UniProtKB/TrEMBL annotation:
Lineage per the UniProt record: Eukaryota, Viridiplantae, Streptophyta, Embryophyta, Tracheophyta
Organism superkingdom: Eukaryota
GO MF: RNA binding
Matches recorded under PROSITE patterns: PPR (PS51375)
Keyword Mitochondrion (UniProt): no
UniProt name for this protein: Pentatricopeptide repeat-containing protein
Repeat positions for PPR: 108-138, 139-173, 240-274
Originating organism: Iris pallida (Sweet iris)
Length: 475
């Protein structure tokens, strides 16, 4: 009996506990054993099992759990119904989630938030937004849920819009809100907005905990202000590996590989154990700084000193480092020595380096490897086309471009953001819908004229990135 009671207690944890321990599979196995030989699972146990099913995307098991919930009348508990909704959403079955949601007698704020975040996670942001608008009582947690969902799906303009609406209603944001706003500012690269956010946090006395401080460091780094990033970092009383990674990332943006190495050594000296992400940050900084020898030594030290086996992403950093230095033969030798199968990102990095160094033979070889792994990647065709253009092989340029058209592959239009007087403007390649487009085009023409008069010559390969060649153009 005592053994069964211990097992029962071990199961009576929610999904967060299962996720944090990484024992979701074990949890479900114990749940099955409990059904056979233990006491009947109660609502607390079922919530944990449902959370584990969602984490593992085991829809079949989750449906059987839902059946168990209905048979034993556990659906009257809000926490159980919310866990069922969460399970269906995480398993990619939003219809099942909405059925449960529609039958609930008491839809709590948690129920609405689970639906909203689930819709966003399944890629239906429009439905998530509609549910958010229909929600009768929106507390701070609900606003944070919607803002976080939009931020995770890279809908950064919508994040700022929602944040402004939240302020208009007089709701005071907390640290969770501001982490999403910092992430948004970092992606957009809007330094003025980043400075405003930092001032807003101080003025409104938002608790600047470890997570928010790290987000601020990362925000300023990505906005091109490493000085502000390091000032915040230096003022942090406690720093975890994520905080050190953000600071090292600031040095990567600056191209200061030596400072990145110095920060890494300080981190290790203070007893913080490095992880795979911080190794990527250091290697990226060394690559941007052109420090090949230092990069090679650091890469070897990962396994020899820190006992960390490099993953495919770390090999990718090394290929980028060697490629930037024009060491294409060494980069290819490294790829061929990778103990796991090189992915399309690795070969794409070699292709980009080959294009920059105008090595057509290597570019063709790398492009062939990428297209065998990911034939749908339009950017690879464009890179290869640009490599041919750099070498003046216009017939090959036309062949690649026509092949793109024949396969029906279209390049996704590039976009950029700029902040002017607190307003974020988005520009998409080939789109001329901006209300001030006539003035903008005139200014671009004037800039081009001034560049030409100063002796600047445009690289035709770059011009061709957004050019579509018709058959008549190749005759």
């Amino acid at each position: 009996m005592r053994r069964q009671e211990c097992r029962r207690r071990s199961l009576e944890h929610d999904g967060d506990e299962l996720r944090s321990t990484g024992l979701a599979e074990t949890g479900l196995a114990l749940f099955n054993e409990m059904l056979v030989s233990g006491p009947r699972p109660d609502r607390v146990t079922v919530v944990g099992a449902l959370s584990a099913s969602g984490q593992l995307c085991k829809l079949g098991f989750g449906r059987r759990l839902h059946g168990y919930v209905l048979r034993h009348g556990l659906d009257s508990c809000d926490a159980v119904s919310n866990a069922v909704i969460d399970m269906y959403m995480k398993c990619g079955d939003p219809d099942g989630a909405f059925v449960v949601f529609g039958l609930m007698r008491n839809r709590t704020e948690v129920s609405w938030n689970t639906i909203i975040f689930g819709c966003a996670s399944n890629g239906d942001l429009d439905l998530a937004r509609r549910c958010f608008e229909l929600m009768p009582d929106k507390g701070l947690f609900s606003w944070n849920t919607m803002i976080n969902a939009l931020a995770k799906e890279s809908c950064f303009k919508e994040v700022i819009s929602l944040f402004q609406a939240m302020q208009g209603l007089g709701l005071r944001p907390d640290g969770v809100t501001m982490v999403s706003i910092c992430t948004t500012c970092g992606f957009l690269g809007t330094l003025d907005l980043a400075k405003w956010v930092y001032a807003y946090i101080g003025k409104n006395k938002v608790e600047c905990n470890l997570r928010l401080s790290t987000a601020l460091v990362d925000m300023f780094a990505k906005c091109g202000d490493p000085k502000s990033a390091m000032e915040i970092f230096d003022g942090m009383p406690v720093r975890d590996v994520a905080a050190w990674t953000a600071a090292i990332g600031a040095m990567a943006v600056e191209g200061d590989g030596r400072k990145a190495l110095e920060l890494f050594n300080r981190m290790v000296g203070q007893g913080v154990e490095p992880d795979g992400v911080v190794f990527v940050a250091v290697l990226t900084a060394l690559s941007h700084g052109g420090l090949v020898e230092e990069g090679l030594r650091f890469f070897r030290s990962m396994k020899e000193i820190y006992g960390f086996v490099p993953q495919i992403v770390h090999y990718g950093c090394m290929v980028d480092l060697l490629g930037r230095a024009g060491m294409l033969a060494e980069a290819l030798a490294l790829i061929q020595a990778i103990p796991m199968e090189p992915n399309d990102v690795i070969w794409g990095s070699l292709l980009a380096a080959s294009r920059n160094n105008r090595n057509i033979e290597m570019a063709e070889y790398a492009a062939d490897k990428v297209l065998n792994l990911a034939p749908e990647r339009c950017g690879i065709h464009v890179l290869l086309s640009n490599a041919y253009a750099s070498a003046g092989k216009w017939e090959e340029v036309a062949r690649v471009r026509l092949a793109l058209k024949d396969k029906g592959i279209q390049k996704l239009p590039g976009s950029s953001f700029i902040e002017v007087d607190g307003v974020i403007h988005e520009f998409t390649s080939t789109c001329e819908s901006h209300p001030q487009m006539t003035m903008i085009a005139g200014m671009i023409d004037e800039m081009n004229e001034r560049l030409s008069s100063s002796g600047y010559v445009t690289d035709l390969a770059d011009v061709l990135v957004n050019v579509d060649l018709d058959e008549k153009d190749t005759k």
